[in-house]
Amino acid sequence: MRPVEIKKGIYWVGAVDWDIRTFHGNTYSTKRGTTYNSYLIIDDKVTLVDGVLASFAGEQIERIREIVPVEKIDYIIVNHIEPDHSGALPGLMKLCPKAKLFGTAKSKEGLSRMYGTDWGLQVVKTGEKLNIGKRNLTFIEAPMIHWPDSMFTYCAEEELLLPNDAFGQHYATSERFDDGTDQCALMDEAGKYYANILWPLGGMIARKIDEILKMNISIKMIAPSHGIIWRRDPMKIINSYISWTKNETKPKAVVIFETMWGSTEMMARKITEGLTDGGVEVKLFDITRSDRTEVNNQMLDARCFVFGSSTHDNGMLSTLAGFLEFLNGLKPKGRIGAAFGSCGWAGGAIPAIEQVLKEAGIELALPSISVKYVPDQDELKKCYEMGVELAKKITGKA
Ligand code: FEO
Question: How far is 370 from 276, CA to CA, in rounded Å?
Answer without folding.
Answer: 21
